[in-house]
Design a protein that fits this description.
The chain is α+β, with helices and mostly antiparallel strands. The chain contains ten helices and four strands, in the order H-H-E-H-E-H-H-E-H-E-H-H-H-H. The longest helix is centred in the C-terminal third of the chain and has 44 residues, at 234-277.
Length: 321
């Protein structure tokens, strides 16, 4: 007579227990997908809500990223205009240009003499004929200094301007950088706004998933009571609901990524035309693949968190009568 031996999980070797652990998780993860498939309408609506909710902070992130790229390109284009004292000879101005070229902070130096300045002003102002009646040229010579990239920030350019104004040939200097500081302040404000809105929408995602899992628990109340009667552990009962929340988050994150990239594609031509008016040729950047991974990981964590909070609150309240 052959004895039948029942092998329990505790009698399995360590590697077998590890394998069975992953097998059970994979089985319950796939079973949670089946639960979503059995309720397609409610599942798709929940995923759509999550996708739209996650797309709002993602859209603001795209806005901040492109704004930073644009301001960075404008930072590197900072220029300092030095107006030369009247009566300085060309030799004196050339000596000044040679000295400025030696500065460690300077990338390039351009010289606009008085005749060139008058011609440019006539071309741009529209007063060409009227200016021809002037007895003398009222415009000074200008030396345009382009700082190196590492010195083109508002602070670095302003420090360089102070040094250049000490040169004896320079009457005064001009640095039109206040607009750049205002733009950077706006970018910082947008970044803080993104964080605030993202925090609110993260809370909304957790609440939506938590409420969805609560309804799923209530719908399976009888099944959960039976599972507790036959001795199922708390972790075994909780796991399918946790995986359901994770699937909600993963699919919602992918939907948010698709929505943002479609929105960027739709607005790309209009934004490119607007940037072209300001002399910028930058291309609008959408969410990259690495940002997709981060978004999906964040969304899956939020899905797990909402499910966990709902399961801990409602599952314990269900006891077999």
């Amino acid at each position: 007579m052959t004895r039948k031996v029942k092998i329990t999980a505790s009698k399995l070797p360590f590697t077998g227990r590890v394998v069975m652990f992953f097998v059970r998780h994979i089985q319950q993860a796939m079973a949670s997908v089946g639960e979503l498939w059995r309720n397609p309408v409610s599942s798709v609506m929940t995923m759509a809500v999550l996708g739209v909710s996650l797309s709002l902070p993602a859209a603001l992130q795209v806005l901040v990223k492109n704004a930073e790229n644009i301001t960075q390109s404008w930072n590197n284009a900072a220029e300092i205009s030095l107006f030369i004292n009247e009566g300085r000879s060309e030799q004196s101005i050339q000596n000044l240009i040679r000295r400025i070229n030696v500065y460690a902070e300077v990338d390039a130096v351009d010289y606009i003499n008085r005749e060139q300045a008058l011609e440019e002003f006539q071309r741009l102002s529209g007063f060409g004929e009227a200016l021809s009646y002037l007895d003398t040229n009222p415009l000074p010579a200008v030396v345009v200094v382009t700082p190196l990239a590492r010195h083109s920030s508002p602070e670095g350019a302003r420090q360089l301007l102070v040094k250049l104004e000490r040169e004896p040939e320079v009457s005064f200097g001009r640095l039109d950088i206040e607009w750049l500081e205002r733009l950077q302040a706006m970018v910082r404000l947008i970044e803080r706004t993104v964080l605030a809105i993202a925090a609110l929408l993260v809370l909304a995602v957790v609440l939506v998933i938590g409420n969805t899992i609560r309804l799923a628990i209530m719908n399976r109340r009888t099944e959960i009571e039976v599972m507790k009667l036959v001795g199922a552990t708390e972790s075994f009962i909780q796991r399918p609901f946790l995986y359901t929340g994770i699937w909600y988050g993963v699919i919602g994150g992918v939907l948010a990524w698709v929505i943002i990239n479609l929105l960027v594609w739709y607005l790309d031509s209009a934004l490119a035309e607007l940037l072209g008016l300001y002399g910028s040729q930058l291309q609008i950047q959408a969410l990259s693949f690495s940002e997709l991974i981060k978004l999906v990981l964040l969304a899956s964590f939020l899905g797990w968190l909402g499910s966990y909070l709902s399961v801990r609150q409602h599952l314990r309240a269900i006891e077999p009568s």
